[in-house]
Amino acid sequence: MLIVDDEPALTELLSVAVTEAGWRPYPVADGHSALRAARGCAPHAVVLDGMLPDLDGIQVLRRLRYENPRLPVLMLTARDALEHRIDGLSSGADDYVTKPFSLEEVVLRLRGLLRRAGAEPLRADDSVLVLGDLVLSEETREVRRDGTPIQLTAKEFDLLGLLLGHPRQVLSKAQILEHVWSSSFDGGGNLVEVYVSSLRRKIDKGRAPMIHTVRGVGYAIRPVEDGR
């Protein structure tokens, strides 16, 4: 999550809020840094202040939108005049929050943007996770991809649920062991590799891959569009 604001205290609060929401913050304090960071870290979304010390927030927004038309952008500004909001939205902002604002509102709006962009699991209800054409029901323990049922073992199901609960995030073998097996016993890394390989065969066989290995780091599940 790229956070662009030149107020250190506010940036820190936003970073804490997005971290607690399950996203990794990338805070920067000016427009040029924001453009470089957007190219380098490929953020899921951008929280962009409308007034920056170098480039105007609208200028940054237009450049971000030119380079990545689908990148969700939430504008923040202390200016609450209607024309400013219209200017931001017409320049490509997906949503607009006026300072002062509640952190809870920012997180809720970001979740909405990410869901519409397919960057976060959609919840049809509290027990259903959806990412692209992949659907997991925790209540019925059923998994479908593109409407086709997929049979998983109990641990494969738990592993997939963990990955879907953290879309695009790279989870280490240690994190997976802790959440799926509640342990970190010797040889656990090999166990994770075996289960990820088995899950990948069932989820991705004959289809565009969603489960990815980040060599030396861990595993992540991503919408198919990310790999195109």
Number of strands: 11
Beta percentage is: 15-25%
- The chain-level structural class is alpha/beta
Instruction: State the major sheet.
Output: 5 strands, parallel
Form type:
elongated
N-to-C series of helices and strands: EHEHEHEHEHEEEEHHHEE
Number of helices: 8
- CA-to-CA gap between the ends? 21 Å
Strand order of the largest sheet: 2-1-3-4-5
Share of helix, binned: 40-55%
Low-confidence stretches: none
Which radius of gyration do the C-alpha atoms yield?
Answer: 19 Å
**Overall pLDDT confidence:** 84
Jot down its keywords.
DNA-binding, alpha/beta, 8 helices, four-stranded antiparallel beta sheet, phosphoprotein, Sig_transdc_resp-reg_receiver, 11 strands, five-stranded parallel beta sheet, Response regulator transcription factor, 228 residues
Brief write-up:
This protein is of the alpha/beta class and about 230 residues long. It has helices at about 10-20, 30-40, 55-65, 80-90, 105-115, 155-165, 175-180, 190-205, and strands at about 1-5, 25-30, 45-50, 75, 95-100, 130, 135, 140-145, 150, 210-215, 220.
